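Hello,

Our lab assistant flagged a job as stuck in the queue for most of the afternoon. It eventually completed. Since we weren't sure the result was trustworthy after the delay, we are filing this so someone can double-check. Below is the sequence as submitted and the structure that was eventually returned. Let us know if re-running is recommended.
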Amino acid sequence: MKIGIMDSGVGGLTVLKECLVRLPEHEYIYYADSKHAPYGTKTRDEVYELTANAVDFLVGLGCEIVVLACNTATSAAAVGLRLKYTIPIVGMEPAIKPALEFAQNRRVLVTATELTLSQPKFTELIEKLDVNSRVDFLPLTELVEFAEQGMFDVRVVTAYLEEKLAHLDLDLYGSVVLGCTHFPLFKGCFEAVLPFGTAVVDGSVGTTKRVKEFAKSPSKTPSLSFFLSGEPILEGKFFERVKRIIAQNDI
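-- returned structure --
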């Protein structure tokens, strides 16, 4: 099958990598809307329009499944797009349920963009799962900008995380949720600043499992192509960055 994966930029590559490992027998088209990144600082209406444009583009290329590999886009646009299209629209969901299980009786810290944390979809998920009020939230929108700018200096990212986490007693937390697809690109930095044994959890595996439920027909010629806000990516700095991210686990 032809599967489209869109994100505001390079973050959705973390989902693409999971798909390539677990479902390598399909055609993939990755749409990075980096010309309009970050989504997390925009209004809900702006994010919906940008996401709808990306999905329209992917459907126009013949995609039979589209993955919104962006928590912000999912929060703002998934419901509306599922009403518009008959093909599966697979979204992201912060991995709060597994994080609560990993944490056992300790607290859970959810990191995401400000827009994701403010959306009704996210609030409803918390009300459903966090019955013992163990979940705290921390916006880390700047990490999206780091990823989009190619800022993968471990010292810079680690210093940023230490500053943002300084007001928290990290020993209280059994797990941390990476609630933005850009954040797993910095998983190593999270692990470096968190107490040993803290589980760092993201939703890419769960999303890939959902894609697998719909992707029933393998392609005769599996392939992978990239687009930058509608323009094909065949070479250049952005293409090199994409290849580097796909080739590594985290920075």
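-- support follow-up --
The delay was a queue issue, not a problem with the job. The result is valid. Residues 2-92+205-247 form a domain with the Rossmann fold fold (CATH 3.40.50.1860). The radius of gyration is 17 Å.
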